[in-house]
Write a structure and sequence with these properties.
With about 190 residues, the protein is mainly α. It has a single domain (about 1-180), classed as Serine Threonine Protein Phosphatase 5, Tetratricopeptide repeat (Alpha Horseshoe). The chain is built from nine helices and two strands. The protein has helices at about 1-5, 10-25, 65-70, 75-85, 100-105, 110-115, 130-140, 140-150, 170-180, and strands at about 35, 40. A two-stranded antiparallel sheet has the order 1-2. Helix 5 runs antiparallel to helix 6 (about 110-115), helix 5 runs parallel beside helix 7 and helix 7 (about 130-140) packs antiparallel against helix 8. The longest helix has 15 residues, at about 10-25.
């Protein structure tokens, strides 16, 4: 409901406004620094770092679609569905997001790797023109950004607002990795 209330705002603009709001609430907050505790990151507020703009809802098993299984990181189900030809690896949801977009958004590196092995289009663009590389960069998953680049992702593809993947992040390591691959292409 909260996402729908934003109307026609793009995910990129929503992310920027979210970051600005958090910085206003906690001026000392820096999206580049999180306190690591095991596998869980914490913000200055003490809560977990959220990698996605999308809220989860409980969905009954019989009501799930392939995107729900992708969001859950159910690699076995997604792999079997694609290999059995029940689902095209490049199928998109109502917003034009492919399974690869969702896996990158959620930080599911192993699923990203599997989707790429199953011939997912690494440069597929969603309804806003964003690629999986935009999603991985915006969510600051350096390991996934690197995997996508090694798999042929084009860091020079711009979204509908004219933004490159490197402009979707403030993470210096990601920006550096993207710029290294962009050198000579623009």
């Amino acid at each position: 409901e909260a996402w729908k209330a934003l109307g026609d705002i793009s995910p990129h603009q929503a992310m920027q406004e979210y970051v600005a709001t958090v910085k206003k609430l906690d001026p000392s907050w820096n999206p580049q620094t999180t306190e690591k505790r095991g596998k869980e990151s914490k913000t200055a507020f003490g809560g977990p770092v959220v990698s996605s703009l999308y809220q989860e809802e409980t969905i009954r098993e019989e009501d799930k679609n392939i995107f729900d299984y992708c969001r859950e990181n159910n690699i076995d189900y997604v792999t079997k569905a694609i290999r059995s030809k029940k689902v095209d690896v490049n199928v998109t949801d109502e917003e034009g997001r492919a399974l690869l977009h969702w896996a990158c958004d959620r930080g599911h590196k192993e699923l990203v790797s599997v989707l790429l092995q199953l011939a997912a289009d690494v440069n597929s663009q969603d309804g806003e023109g964003q690629t999986a590389l935009h999603y991985a960069a915006a969510c600051e998953f350096l390991d996934i950004v690197e995997l996508l680049l090694k798999s042929g992702a084009d860091p020079t593809l711009r979204d509908q607002e004219g933004c490159l993947p490197e402009e979707a992040t403030d993470c210096k390591a990601i920006t550096s990795a993207l710029r290294q691959h962009t050198a000579g292409k623009t």
